[in-house]
Specification:
mainly alpha, Rna Polymerase Sigma Factor, Chain: A, 0% strand
């Protein structure tokens, strides 16, 4: 797993010991991590690789528990170590242990990923809703709010045969403009015109009624 703009953690510099300190106590490990952070702050790539080896399993585990998704967890882990490489000098031992500092970063990064993914999903859903073709225009909404069965039936008789057929399919059959056009083997603009004209005549008739 390679961290962008930071040393290659998958292939650390030659001579760096493999996973030293794994069996150390928490105190020993934190002492070692603190020393490594000081070296990382000075741009020591070997120290960064060692820091990564000592902590990457924990960071990835945290990300995976929060994110579930493997690819997102790997991305979050890379971003955590990029932040470590860039901000190691900001660690303050007076505020907590190096491991606690790192895991706080990991948790926040994973939560940010969740929020970002959710925001993207919400945007797509909103875009999809706004992009749907509106089959019932404002004229039909106005008519629909005043519908009375007897009056509508009476006023439908004032429409031409083609207007009646189109309006019935759209507003009683629940079909869209496209579906009405396919059913009647007509062009969509023609169907829209028939329905709009028919609704205007219905509106006029209902107002007179």
């Amino acid at each position: 797993m390679e961290t962008p703009n930071a040393p290659n953690t998958a292939n650390p510099p030659a001579g760096v010991p493999a996973r030293t300190g794994v069996n150390s106590t928490g105190t020993d490990l934190n002492r070692q991590l603190g020393a490594l952070l000081e070296q990382i702050a000075d741009g020591d790539r070997g120290a960064f690789a060692e820091f990564y080896r000592l902590t990457s399993r924990r960071v990835f585990g945290m990300a995976r528990r929060v994110l579930i998704d493997l690819e997102l967890s790997e991305d979050a882990t890379q971003e955590v170590y990029l932040q470590v490489w860039q901000n190691a000098g900001s660690f303050n031992a007076a505020t907590g242990s190096p491991l606690a500092w790192l895991m706080t970063i990991a948790h926040r990064r994973a939560v940010d990923k969740v929020r970002s993914a959710q925001a993207a999903t919400d945007r797509e859903a909103k875009y999809g809703a706004n992009s749907q073709e509106i089959d019932h225009d404002s004229v039909s909404d106005e008519v629909g709010s005043r519908l009375e069965a007897d009056a509508v039936i009476r006023c439908l008789g004032t429409l031409t045969e083609t207007q009646q057929e189109s309006v019935r399919l759209a507003y009683y059959g629940g079909l869209t403009y496209r579906e009405v056009a396919e059913r009647l083997n007509s062009a969509i603009p023609t169907i829209k015109s028939r329905i709009r004209d028919g609704l205007i005549r219905l509106k006029t008739c209902l107002e007179v009624s």
